[in-house]
Structure formats: C-alpha cells, structure tokens
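Our consortium's second objective concerns turning raw sequence data into structural hypotheses that experimental partners can test. To show how far this objective has progressed, the report includes one record in full. It was chosen at random from the queue rather than selected for favorable results. The single chain below, 374 residues long, was entered without modification.
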Amino acid sequence: MRRADDLLAWFDRHRRDLPWRRTRDPYKIWLSEVMLQQTRVETVLPFYKRFLEKFPTVEALARAEVEEVLALWSGLGYYRRARQLHAAARKVAAAGAFPATEAGLLGLPGVGAYTAAAVASIAFGVAAPVMDGNVERVLARCLALAEEPRASGARRKLLAAAEELLDPRRPGDSNQALMELGATLCTPRRPKCLLCPLHVGCRAAGEGAPERYPLPKAKRLAERQRLLVAVAAKGGAVLLFRRPEDSALLAGTWELPWVILERDGVPESGSPEVLLAARYGGRWTLGARLAGVRHGITYRDLEVDVHRAELAWGGEVREAMAAGWFDAAGRAGLPLSSLVGKVLKALDASLPAGVKPRPEAAAPARRSRSPRRG
C-alpha cells in the first residue's frame, strides 16, 4: 500500500488542473474520456469547453441531431466517436440515468474496457483499474515487462500491477494518478525517472534503460496513396458533397470531391474525370493544379494534388449523397475532415471571400438532395 500512497501523494501535489477533474458528473467525465482517445489534452480542451456550452447535459446531447454533433466535433477527428457518443447519450437519456457499474457502462455504444473502468472509478468510486497507453507504459517499465503489452499474458500482469496501486478509498484518483504519471514524467522519450514516485522498485529504471519498455508493437506498413482533390469554386463558395450514412469512414461528413490516382505507385484504371464521375455523378473537367498537401491517416500516407474543376450535371448525383455550395461561413457549420481543412487552407489565398452559401441544390438532377448545414 506504500507505493499506492506515494503515487496519490505525488498526484495531490502535481496534478494538472483540468476541467473534467473538477467534477464527478459522469456525463462530463465520460465526454472527456471519449474526446481524449488518441488525442492530446491540449487539443481536447477547447472542444470540451465548446461541447459543454452547446450540450451541457446528457439529455441535451440526446435531443440533438447527429449532424449537429458531427459539426461541433469537426476538427477533432475519428468521427465514429461522435456518432457513438450521440447514440450512447440517447440510451442513457432513455434509461433516465447513467449506469454506475463497469458492466452497465460497457453496454453503451462505443464504451470499451478502459472507458468503463475510468468512468466507473472517477464518477462512481468503483475500484476498477484502468489500462490506457500511459498506464501501460508506466507499468511495463515498473515490471521491465519483456512481452508485447497487448498479449493476453502480459495484459493480465499489467492489470494485476494496476490493482496493486489502486487505493480502494480513492480509486478514481489512483487511476488518474497513473495516467498523469505517464503523460508528464514516464514519457516515451527521456522519462524523468528521478522525479517519479514509483522510481524505487521500478525495474526498468534500475536497469538504466526505461525507454526499452514497453516492447514496441509490430507496425503495419503504411500504404502510400496519391489522391486528386477537385475544387469547383463559385465566387467564395466551393462545392462539397456529404458522405452517405453507410460510409465505412467519416460517415455524414462533408468533403471536397476526390479520387485515388495511385496506390503504392500502381495507377488506378481510368482518367481522373471518369473516376470522379463514377464516384459523384455528372461530367467533370479538370483545370490546373492549384496546390499539393500531405496527410497521414491511420496506416495511409496521402500525397494530394489539388486541381481546379468544373462540373456539368449531365447525369445524376449518386443516390443518398447530398451536395451544396458553401463559403467559409457555411463551412464553419459543417463536419469537415482535417484533410478538407488542409486543402481549403492551401486555397484560401486564391478564393475570393464574402459569398454566402447558396440555398439551392448543387445538383438539379432527380436524385440530388438540397445542401444541408450540418
């Protein structure tokens, strides 16, 4: 229990003052945990503040349309989190209260073992150890774990070590202390071992090689893709399409029209104009290359050529795909991917400002839908 006491004493002195640490409201704690998945604290803070201003309670979030949620989430990435957050909010609101146990929390859309343990311990005082990337690194070093942390046997050892450091009187603080330790001292590179409350007894520190742990995961080779993004402009407005709800990635978000030209150096069959027509409908004419951007997403390394384009609607827009013209003010209310943001930033100097989004549909064909504002 001594090491658990040392950890909590360190946390009480050094923890960062973060807004989700000033509450026991399960909604606000859950929201922070979802936003922090694969995202830095500094990035999350302004999104967290704006989100709570718009949706101060889980009931307010449940009453919202999913498009509103996606628009507010725009720029935070991993849009599936926002969809699951909204679905879970509706389930909680229908039940009348948040589930107060790990098992109950695991029944919510998008809630896995880590999030369930974090919310249960912090909001409800359940003695449940958490295991995120920061905790995994701290404990792998304490144990000098010579196994890949995600392997089942290694996972059991890490959870057992986490349980030993969990004070049942303050389980939420114990979990947050381990996460804070990994975020601020036991960092991937140049850890500050001499300041660590677990320094005594840490096997990796004793070996003098803490950066050796945890053992790295086998990396998936990145797939290199070259894309073409087509920018059809009308005054200060650009043509955007909304991804269908059944899209595997970024469903419901708005995008500039794009196609893949090459995968790992192998060209796609068909001209860019033909590929654009197959994806979006209409007849496309491409103009000069305007810019180029690089972008990384999951295991894909993207090289993007941005071209001016014109579109004639000689056919129909793809079924279930909305389209519309939006200027900067109109785009501010839409859920846009970070790649769209990069492309539009590169084009800002070449697009005149001040044109408001047009209310008419971009595609007048029978299956087109009117542009929607998020």
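The partners drew two points from this record. The two ends are 52 Å apart (CA to CA). Residues 2-212 form a domain with the Endonuclease III; domain 1 fold (CATH 1.10.340.30). Both points have been shared with the crystallography group to help prioritize constructs.
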